[in-house]
């Protein structure tokens, strides 16, 4: 299908990746933590007048800097790198994860979005400020947004923002292909 998009949600264990996906796909939130091995959710999203079938891949948490396998790199149109604003360690591991992702993609440019989850927490619980999130996004050359899977605030915007980036990238690739020629 022309309007099918595959998105992958990556980040450390326990940062709320599955909760963000669950909130987006089903508008529900569960307080209990249940580690994910690999999940694939399917949702239809209409943006900018077009309907998209989105396959959202939710693999197990990436707690180390091991190589990312083909199950999270082949056929993926965009990535959401999630950390918890309440857990500095989940934030600090993202540059390494992003680096591994770039290596696994062999330099291919794939839209990626940095997301600080649990933004509904109080300032005394927050270990990563909005400014630090924006700064890391700038360093990684990707956009930064925050959301709360618990309240739902900002969750839809995460997926809409990434999907728009994916669509721009796909449109750019089509234009680039239109200008290719060979001389014999």
Automatic annotation (TrEMBL):
Name recorded for this polypeptide: Uncharacterized protein
GO-annotated cellular components: membrane
Entry keyword tRNA-binding: no
Record has Nucleotide-binding as a keyword: yes
Matching Pfam families: Ras
Keywords: GTP-binding, Nucleotide-binding
Species name: Rhodosorus marinus
Record InterPro entries: P-loop_NTPase, Small_GTP-bd, Small_GTPase, Small_GTPase_Ras-type
GO MF annotation: an example: GTPase activity
GO biological process: one example: signal transduction
């Amino acid at each position: 299908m022309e309007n099918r998009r595959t998105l992958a949600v990556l980040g450390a264990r326990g940062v709320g990746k599955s909760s963000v996906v669950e909130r987006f796909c089903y508008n529900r939130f569960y307080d209990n933590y249940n580690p994910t091995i690999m999940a694939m959710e399917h949702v239809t999203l209409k943006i900018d007048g077009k309907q998209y079938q989105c396959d959202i891949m939710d693999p197990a948490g990436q707690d180390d800097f091991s190589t990312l396998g083909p199950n999270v790199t082949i056929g993926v149109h965009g990535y959401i790198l999630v950390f918890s604003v309440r857990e500095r360690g989940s934030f600090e591991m993202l540059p390494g994860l992003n680096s591994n992702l770039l290596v696994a993609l062999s330099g291919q440019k794939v839209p990626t979005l940095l997301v600080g989850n649990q933004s509904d927490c109080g300032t005394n619980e927050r270990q990563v400020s909005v400014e630090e999130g924006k700064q890391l996004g700038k360093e990684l050359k990707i956009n930064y947004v925050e959301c709360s899977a618990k309240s739902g605030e900002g969750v839809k915007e995460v997926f809409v923002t990434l999907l728009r980036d994916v669509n721009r990238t796909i449109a750019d690739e089509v234009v680039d292909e239109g200008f290719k020629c060979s001389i014999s």
